[in-house]
């Protein structure tokens, strides 16, 4: 059946995450061709609606990362065009990319997240919004783009210097959260099943954008070497977040775990509705662990979108 189905793989775009999206998209396109689909590779530009109108695909595989592929913009366009697409819909995408909106959805349902406050970047140059150490991050970017950990001995200055390189130079407002010491873990959800828990051990001390996407900078321990009840709790939380946000296809929920506090030390950081599909990415790795090949993974995601 797949041979008669035309899939347009949407990749690239103009976000900070363009290079990663191109890697994801080309990997997905290769896999879909191996599965027998007819594939068109679309490096998204401002004429994307005209391109898709001319191609007339049966379904779009959304391999974009960041804005506008992850924030509901592309999803809304595809809804208007009547084209089916993979991963989450418009409303879910709008909520999940915004860390404050995500908290408003998940925290009342019993999912623990760090207490945060939105601050004007200008105010950082006169004083700290929270006791150090704390984390500053854009309200609606993914993949640890523009994240800064402000420590007592940080070289950002005290207060933060206007000249110090950090997200305050790029974004007018930022989310400030207490820094949670401990371990970095993540859980992929595919369809309606949490796959497993991976621990991320960055060699530089912080799982930032470079650590995520540069081979050799982060060790992935899959499955994570953690107590069974901790793993089960994280998988339950990830599946609950996936359902509460209304995610489709694959999602990935990231955690910090203060292992000295046991189950009380588990905090959800965010849920990614467009998780990476590169060779280094976590969702394909967890899928492999549970016996799903890369080709089977992309085939399942396309079939769910078509259904």
TrEMBL record:
Keywords: ATP-binding, Cell shape, Cell wall biogenesis/degradation, Cytoplasm, Ligase, Magnesium, Manganese, Metal-binding, Nucleotide-binding, Peptidoglycan synthesis. Pathway: Cell wall biogenesis; peptidoglycan biosynthesis. Its main location: cytoplasm. Residues 103-303 form the ATP-grasp domain. Its EC number is 6.3.2.4. It catalyses: 2 D-alanine + ATP = D-alanyl-D-alanine + ADP + phosphate + H(+). It is found in: Cytoplasm. Mg(2+) 2 binds at residues 270, 272. Binds 2 magnesium or manganese ions per subunit. Its cofactor is Mg(2+); Mn(2+). The keyword Zinc does not apply. Mg(2+) 1 binds at residues 254, 270. One of its GO terms (biological process) is peptidoglycan biosynthetic process. The active site is at 17, 143, 281. Pfam families: Dala_Dala_lig_C (PF07478), Dala_Dala_lig_N (PF01820). One of its GO terms (cellular component) is cytoplasm. One of its GO terms (molecular function) is metal ion binding. Cell wall formation. Belongs to the D-alanine--D-alanine ligase family. This is D-alanine--D-alanine ligase. It comes from Sphingorhabdus profundilacus. The lineage of its organism: Bacteria, Pseudomonadati, Pseudomonadota, Alphaproteobacteria, Sphingomonadales.
């Amino acid at each position: 059946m797949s041979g008669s189905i035309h899939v347009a793989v949407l990749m690239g775009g103009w976000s900070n995450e363009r290079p990663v999206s191109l890697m994801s998209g080309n990997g997905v396109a290769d896999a879909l061709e191996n599965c027998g689909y007819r594939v068109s590779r679309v490096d998204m530009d401002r004429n994307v609606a005209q391109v898709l109108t001319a191609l007339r695909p049966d379904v779009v595989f959304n391999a974009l990362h960041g804005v506008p592929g992850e924030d509901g913009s592309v999803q809304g366009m595809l809804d208007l065009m009547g084209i089916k697409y993979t991963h989450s819909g418009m409303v879910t995408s709008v909520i999940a990319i915004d860390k404050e909106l995500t908290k408003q959805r998940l925290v009342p349902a019993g999912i623990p997240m760090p207490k945060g406050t939105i601050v004007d970047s200008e105010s950082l140059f006169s004083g700290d919004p929270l006791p150090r150490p704390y984390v500053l991050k854009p309200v609606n970017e993914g993949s640890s783009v523009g994240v800064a950990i402000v420590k007592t001995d940080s070289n950002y200055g005290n207060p933060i210097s206007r000249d110090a390189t950090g997200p305050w130079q790029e974004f007018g407002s930022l989310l400030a959260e207490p820094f949670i010491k401990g371990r970095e873990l993540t859980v992929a959800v595919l369809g309606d099943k949490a796959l497993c828990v991976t621990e991320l051990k960055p060699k530089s001390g912080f799982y930032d954008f470079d650590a995520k996407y540069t081979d050799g900078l982060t060790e992935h321990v899959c499955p994570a070497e953690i107590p069974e009840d901790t793993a089960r709790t994280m998988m339950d939380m990830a599946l609950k977040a996936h359902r509460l946000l209304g995610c489709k296809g694959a999602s990935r929920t990231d955690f910090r775990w203060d292992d000295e506090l046991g189950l009380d030390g588990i905090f959800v950081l965010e849920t990614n509705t467009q998780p990476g599909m590169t060779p280094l990415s976590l969702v394909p790795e967890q899928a492999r662990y549970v016996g799903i090949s890369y080709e089977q993974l992309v085939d399942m995601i396309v079939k769910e979108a078509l259904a």
